[in-house]
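Notebook, bench 3.
Goal today: get a predicted structure for GDT1 family protein from Novosphingobium indicum so we can plan the truncation constructs. The sequence was checked against the plasmid map this morning, with no discrepancies at the termini. Length recorded as 185 residues. Pasting the sequence as submitted so the record is complete.
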Amino acid sequence: MPAFYLTLIAVLLAGIGARDQVTIAALARRQGQRPGVLLVALVSAAATASFAAWAAMVMLAELPPPARTIFAAIALGLAGLESLILRPRRDPREPTNSLGALLLVLLAHQVTDAARFMVFGMGVGFAAPLASGAAGILGGGVLAGFAWGWPHLLDTPAIRWMRRIMGGVLTVVALAMFLSEIGIL
């Protein structure tokens, strides 16, 4: 159970203000709160979290236990760097109202975002990809629902600062995990 709860908390914190959330919020502000947008966002969040859990399961079969912590630290570091470096556009342009196009955009954003790196890293680190995947699906759904239900809150400077701070924290935690595992800390 610790893998589920810790992954859920990590996904919620790492996913605040992410590119997929900004895209969902922008569409909800411009088009109104269409249920189809929420449904597509939930499907995309579930699909990408499931993919991250599957990738963690594959990696678990390949890695010996000591290497799992190092690999988890690398995934957490990538999540932190993604939060620090990649900044979502304030108001993405959507030329169509196509839900299929939205699904493709969300899948592209979510496959490499910090929240899915968290699912992947925690699944490998805790050797519990199914629990981490379930937490990723739940956390991704909560983040998508938040962006759809309260889109005006994602356009504040506080959210952008929170994202940067979380990226820094994730990077420091990843570095500490790595240095601890190799015996320097």
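The mean pLDDT is 89. Residues 2-181 form one domain.
Flagging this for group meeting.
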